[in-house]
Design goal:
The strands form 2 sheets. The protein has a 7-stranded mixed sheet. Strands 7-8-9-10-11-12-13 form a 7-stranded mixed sheet. It is 29% helix and 23% strand. It has a single domain (11-270), classed as 4-Layer Sandwich (Metallo-beta-lactamase, Chain A). The chain starts with 10 loop residues before the first strand and ends with a strand. By secondary structure, the protein is an alpha/beta fold. It is globular, with a radius of gyration of 17 Å. It is built from 9 helices and 14 strands.
Length: 271
């Protein structure tokens, strides 16, 4: 089902979100872009088709950082479709050997703290705390609507909360359940990395981040980047919902709480 509402709307779909691969689709009347391409080109094409969209119409890819679950298909899509790829200088240096040859004219530099004006779409970049060369995520603005993506970060600083507060929609990280991670099979060093300030937000951390970011404009929150080893969709959803309810926040009344999936796109929705 494709829920479009208005032809002039800012529309989004989480094509895939999780530890195995991440791709987000954003659309305005004049632009169609991807954030990351962490799956095979064939799989991303299938996911786009599932929301009745084509990769042939995508204008650009915005890369967040060089981890393979975010860049696996970047080079393939750039070569096949001629898409420009935006990333900061350090990320380009870190991912160049992983994505294969991309034409210099398609390698565009976009540093943290900058805003790119594409006409009917403004793209704002911001730094996050993660164990990558220079990780950054993006906030998209169109027709007085804003969509922010915040995953792959160990915490949200006060400054970042101020930058992102009161967006109309968020894709927020709920990567792991702390007890599942602690009791799981990962090496202790990896557990420490995930739990650290340059790791990932837990279900509880994601809930608290959402509470800090919520404003009167906020109508949609997507829970993203769930670990396949250390989380479950229903557990993440219930944890966030319960923490919000404990603080008298009206989940699914003032705003919708949506799940994402590593293999299935969310419906294309207007913000």
């Amino acid at each position: 089902m494709v829920d479009l509402f208005s032809d002039d709307a800012l529309k989004i779909s989480s094509l895939a979100s999780g530890s195995s691969g991440n791709v987000t689709y954003i659309e305005t009347p004049n632009h169609k872009v991807l954030v990351d391409a962490g799956l095979s080109g064939k799989k991303i094409e299938q996911l786009m088709n599932s929301i009745n969209r084509s990769l042939k119409d995508v204008d650009a890819i915005f890369v967040t950082h060089e981890h393979i679950d975010h860049i696996k298909g970047v080079g393939i899509l750039a070569r096949k479709y001629g898409m420009p790829v935006y990333a900061n200088q350090a990320t380009w240096a870190a991912m160049a050997s992983k994505i294969g040859k991309v034409a210099p004219t398609q390698q565009l530099i976009f540093e943290p703290g900058k805003t790119l004006d594409l006409g009917d779409l403004d793209v704002e970049s911001f730094a996050v705390s993660h164990d990558a060369a220079n990780p950054q995520f993006y906030q998209f603005h169109h027709a007085n609507k804003t969509f922010a993506i915040v995953t792959d970060t160990g915490y949200l600083s006060d400054r970042l909360q101020g930058t992102l507060k009161n967006a109309d929609a968020y894709l927020l990280e709920t990567n792991h359940d702390v007890e599942m991670l602690r009791m799981g099979s990962y090496a202790w060093s990896l557990k420490q990395r995930i739990l650290g300030d340059k790791g990932h937000l837990s279900n509880e951390d994601g809930a608290l981040a959402a509470i800090d970011l919520l404003g009167n404009n906020t109508k949609q929150i997507y829970l993203g980047h769930l670990s396949q080893e250390n989380n479950q969709k229903i557990l993440a959803h219930l944890t966030v919902e319960q923490i919000m309810q404990q603080r008298d926040i009206a989940v699914n009344h003032d705003f919708k709480l949506w799940d994402t999936d590593p293999n299935q796109a969310t419906p294309l929705r207007a913000i």
